Amino acid sequence: KFVLSMGSGWNLGNSLDSHGSEPGSRAIKEYETYWGNPTVDRKTILAIRDAGFSTVRIPVTWYEHMDKDGNIDPAWMDRVNEVADYVLDSGMYAIINIHHDNWTQPTAANEKNANRLIEKVWKQIAQRFAGYDEHLIFESMNEPRLIGTDFEWNAGTPEARKVVNIYNKTFVDVVRGVPGNETRYLMITPYGGATDKEALEDLIIPDDESIIVTVHTY
User: Fold this and answer.
1) pTM of the predicted model, to two decimals?
2) pLDDT in tens, 57-87
3) DSSP annotation string for 65-109
4) Please, are residues 214 and 139 in contact by the beta-carbon 8 Å criterion?
5) CB 3.0–4.6 Å: which of 45, 59, 72, 199 could bond 99 by disulfide?
């Protein structure tokens, strides 16, 4: 019922998810124009609503705005908050995620470090948006996959699928542990966001009443 209420969605891509600069080399608002998009403004978001959309997904890349300990630049968090408010103030649903952060590589060797950062980043996001109502949805991460390998765009490997399940559980546990997020809808993903049989069959859905599974088809 809740997912049906979200209606048609629009992806605010190539804006807050742009990356590839030397950390600290660009002003905050320069990041969202770095890949050729205009600065996000309230007028654009209202035009999306008026075109018939009722959900906006806001991909966000965090790693160029974090220090070595995973602390997010307050100015970057402020800008993410501002754009989310454009969407929420318009009466639409907003989805915030972890997008092009390659530290989510799902390998056993990377699991400990990635889990540490997932916990650190999502705790900060959950604290910032604590108390926002169900129109704000958190998505664990975008297409966690073995980048640059033969397994990147399929169901992955048994190890990788297992690690993605671990990441999803960490995400759910940390968000639920922050007051004000006890009933927020949370989106989790199978390996790579894939619809392959193995990816879907191996996905473990945490024991939680407000979970949405997201997959990508192109």
Assistant:
1) 0.96
2) 999 999 999 998 999 999 999 999 999 999 9
3) GB-TT-PBPHHHHHHHHHHHHHHHHTT-EEEEE--S-GGG---TT
4) yes
5) 59
